């Protein structure tokens, strides 16, 4: 029902009743006797206008809130895109440093646990704190990034002060192999998160 439909119908009904009353008893008809009913219809019309005005404002406010939320999500995605790129670069270094040298390498590799690091990425943390703004694919990608970060922090805590020496062609150290595969998966998830954030930006 459109904005003025209820008011128009009320006025039509009132006019019909009024005409019927005048036609039935034209001599006995008194406007004063009909004043309470007239007042009721006026009040009904005013209430109808107030209701529709309130609903229109509610709809407008809802639209503005949705637009604000969309712009916020887009801004976070733009920052996330940059932060994910930096995070991926740091993880790639971790993955390379924990890789077992193959027989074609000519030098052994020394891995110092305390030297393995990634830079904090506030944009990634911001996106995680606002995960409810994003579609399931990006939300899941952010969750996977947090799992990778937790694994990295556990590695740093557990192996603080440790040093490993890896020689070409030898069987890899189990601790470093496990870390290498975990870092590799973390990097793949970070790349997937960056792609997902790009899709949100393009939409």
Secondary structure elements and their pairing?
Elements: H1 5-24, H2 35-97, E1 109-112, H3 122-129, H4 136-158, E2 163-166, H5 174-202
Antiparallel strand pairs: 1-2
Helix pairs in contact: 1-2, 2-3, 2-5, 4-5
Describe the protein in words.
This protein has helices at residues 5-24, 35-97, 122-129, 136-158, 174-202; strands at residues 109-112, 163-166. It has one domain: Up-down Bundle (Four Helix Bundle (Hemerythrin (Met), subunit A)), CATH 1.20.120. The protein has 203 residues and is mainly α. It has a two-stranded antiparallel ribbon. Helix 1 packs antiparallel against helix 2 (35-97) and helix 4 runs antiparallel to helix 5.
Give a summary of the structure in a few sentences.
Helices cover 70% and strands 4% of the residues. The protein has helices at 5-24, 35-97, 122-129, 136-158, 174-202, and strands spanning 109-112, 163-166.
């Amino acid at each position: 029902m459109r904005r003025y439909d209820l008011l128009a119908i009320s006025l039509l009904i009132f006019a019909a009743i009024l005409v019927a009353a005048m036609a039935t008893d034209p001599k006995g008809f008194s406007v004063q006797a009909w004043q309470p009913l007239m007042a009721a219809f006026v009040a009904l019309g005013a209430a109808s206008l107030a209701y529709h005005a309130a609903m229109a404002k509610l709809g407008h406010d809802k639209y503005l809130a949705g637009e604000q939320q969309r712009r916020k999500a887009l801004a976070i995605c733009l920052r996330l895109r940059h932060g994910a790129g930096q995070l991926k670069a740091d993880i790639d270094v971790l993955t390379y440093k924990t890789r077992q040298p193959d027989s074609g390498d000519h030098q052994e590799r020394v891995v110092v646990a305390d030297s393995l690091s990634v830079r904090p990425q506030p944009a990634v943390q911001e996106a995680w704190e606002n995960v409810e703004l994003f579609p399931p694919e990006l939300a899941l990608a952010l969750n996977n990034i947090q799992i990778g970060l937790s694994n990295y922090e556990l590695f740093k805590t557990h192996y603080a002060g440790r040093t490993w020496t890896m020689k070409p062609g030898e069987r890899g150290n189990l601790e470093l192999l496990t870390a290498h595969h975990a870092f590799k998966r973390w990097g793949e998830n970070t790349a997937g998160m960056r792609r997902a954030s790009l899709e949100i930006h393009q939409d």
